Amino acid sequence: MTKDKTVTMSRELLPCPFCGCQMRIETGRDTGHRMYGDHPQKCVFPRNSITAMESSDHPDALTRLIEDWNTRADPIVEADGMGEAVTFQDRVKPWMLACFGAEILADCQERNHRFLEEALELVQACGATESEAHQLVDYVYGREIGDPAQEVGGVMVTLAALCLSHDLDMHEAGETELERIWTKVEQIRAKQAAKPNMSPLPGVYPDRASQPAPVSVVLPERAPEPTTAEVVDPDCNYENGLADGWNNCLDKVKELNQ
Fold first, then answer.
1. What is the mean pLDDT of the chain?
2. Are 217 and 253 in contact (CB under 8 A)?
3. Structural domain harbouring 46
4. Most buried of the four, 85, 115, 146, 207, by CB within 10 Å?
5. Element housing 97 (H / E)
6. How far apart, in whole angstroms, are the C-alpha atoms of residue 40 and residue 15?
7. Domain check: are 21 and 100 in the same one?
8. Rounded distance, CA 2 to CA 208, Å?
9. Hey, what's the torsion of the CAs at 54, 59, 65, 70, to 10 degrees?
């Protein structure tokens, strides 16, 4: 026997706060009120899973379910002109371009350093010691290199877990910081420019190709200078030429090394 079921598509029902998809409520005689959404893979809610539910025993159950969902679902995503959800990552990009430009945005080494710096500052603020940080660096770099996409997932999960343990809201903190740094573009540029260049420490890398880090080269020994007898001996001319060429190369390297 087919169970009676109605579908509620209320305009008062706010979209999913994580992906922006439209939500619906299905009401069954024996199942109560169940909320669903066509969540994409990137959403925290699995596609077509039960997002929220309420028993239909109470006469105000449907109204209460909608009100409870809307209270929790203050959207943290925006939509572009095509109706697509704009993620937090999408909204960080314009700030990066405005603050540092496309070159620094695309600089993977710089981004590695800045992420590591912020991660260390976070765990320091949450009570981790310098000794613990050094031990973990040795531990991680003693293992095989992971897959970047999987490691990003691990970062997201462990960041969420850290925020839960410290009673922090990671989404609210991200929104607050993004709003704050939009007002500090000039100050952040000045701070970045004042830091050591060509270093893991905060700095800029505008001339990486034309200004390599200075390297001191240890030169090998020079070839012996020919004696007077060797200079006039035809059989020694070939060896003398090799020695002169070798020493001339060393002189040139020494000149470049100064």
1. 75
2. yes
3. 5-79
4. 85
5. helix 88-99
6. 13
7. no
8. 70
9. 180
